[in-house]
Amino acid sequence: MASICVSIFILMAATLCAGYPAGGPYYSCKGLLPGHGDGPKKTAPPYRMSVSQATVESGGSTSVTLSSIDVPFMGFMCAASKYEDEANNTVGEFSRTDDYVNITQLVNCSGSTPYTGITHVSRNPKNTVVFNWSVPDSASSGSVFKIRCTFVQSFNVYWIDSLVNVTVDNKISSNENSSSVQTSTLRNLIACLLTVFYCFL
Ligand SMILES: *[C@@H]1O[C@H](CO)[C@@H](O)[C@H](O)[C@H]1NC(C)=O
Ligand SMILES: *[C@@H]1O[C@H](CO)[C@@H](O)[C@H](O)[C@H]1NC(C)=O
Ligand SMILES: *[C@@H]1O[C@H](CO)[C@@H](O)[C@H](O)[C@H]1NC(C)=O
Ligand SMILES: *[C@@H]1O[C@H](CO)[C@@H](O)[C@H](O)[C@H]1NC(C)=O
Ligand SMILES: *[C@@H]1O[C@H](CO)[C@@H](O)[C@H](O)[C@H]1NC(C)=O
Ligand SMILES: *[C@@H]1O[C@H](CO)[C@@H](O)[C@H](O)[C@H]1NC(C)=O
């Protein structure tokens, strides 16, 4: 009898606590470590990260693409820091792109300016996600930023060390009037979307 109860409990717990179905919580921006499973995989992830522009001027933005090689990912979370900052203090600003507005949400990472993280909305399998990241206005020429992402394939299977660099060069368009970064008014909807599931196991 007791074993039946235990089985039912485990089944319920597994259903309720399968990671963060509604996106990574704000307090995991620095480590990007999902609070579940057996720990990160050390193998090469079956996922890729790329940026449309590896060199951007301060305040400028680059488009970031996450893609699967063969197996889709259920979850992801990304944050950006100065390359040399081992504490991974989060900087810059993510924004969503129109085609992915319904499957991504911005995160206000703890201890930094708003929108310094981005994560999934649901566990639906994903093969591609595209969003933008803009460099801080104050970034000086030559500084390097790392955009880091965690990919979650399943409760127990995830990789935390994907990284892509963005280098600041303020001479790129010194002769042009570069357009200012457009920030989406839709991001005000994020507060409504952000629901964090706590797992007590
Ligand atoms: C910062 O990011 C690096 C690279 O992903 C990671 O190895 C390290 O554990 C992170 N540091 C902290 C304090 O989370
Ligand atoms: C995203 O960044 C790209 C490259 O800088 C830019 O062309 C595009 O307009 C940006 N999109 C949004 C929605 O901010
Ligand atoms: C996002 O959701 C809204 C409301 O359901 C819908 O009108 C819109 O077409 C969706 N956008 C995309 C890119 O799927
Ligand atoms: C990122 O930039 C740092 C510092 O310039 C460099 O050491 C590192 O190899 C770069 N990493 C990648 C993945 O480009
Ligand atoms: C930049 O904008 C200013 C003011 O709008 C204008 O006077 C100037 O000619 C522009 N420069 C270029 C290179 O377009
Ligand atoms: C994130 O910060 C912005 C600006 O301060 C705020 O409007 C928004 O409600 C915050 N979002 C969440 C989910 O706390």
UniProtKB/TrEMBL annotation:
Q: Which residues form the Reelin domain?
A: 10-185
Query: According to its UniProt record, where is this protein located?
Result: Secreted
Signal sequence, renumbered to the chain? 1-19
Q: InterPro entries, from UniProt? A: Ferric-chelate_Red/DefProt, Reeler_dom, Reeler_sf
Q: Which GO terms describe its biological process?
A: defense response to bacterium; innate immune response
Stored PROSITE patterns: REELIN
Coiled-coil positions are: none
Cellular component aspect of the GO annotation: extracellular region; membrane
CDD domains in the record = Reeler
Give the UniProt keywords, A-Z.
Antibiotic, Antimicrobial, Immunity, Innate immunity, Secreted, Signal
Domain of life here? Answer: Eukaryota
Similarity comment: family membership: Belongs to the insect defense protein family.
| Annotated protein name in UniProt | Defense protein 3
Which organism's genome codes for this protein?
Biomphalaria glabrata
What does the organism's lineage look like at the top? Eukaryota, Metazoa, Spiralia, Lophotrochozoa, Mollusca
Q: Which gene encodes it?
A: LOC106059539
